[in-house]
Amino acid sequence: MSVFNLNDQNAHIDNKIIAGLERLSQVFRVLLWEKAKEHKLSPIQIQLLIFIQHHSNDKTTVSYLAQEFNLTKPTISDAIKVLDRKGLLQKIAHTKDARSYSIRLTEEGQKVVEETENFVNPLKEIVSEADEADKVVLWANISNLIAVLNKMGIISVQRTCPNCQYYSVNNEVHFCSLLNQTLFTKDIRMDCPEFEAQ
Ligand code: SF4
Question: What pTM, to 2 d.p., does this model score?
Answer without folding.
Answer: 0.90
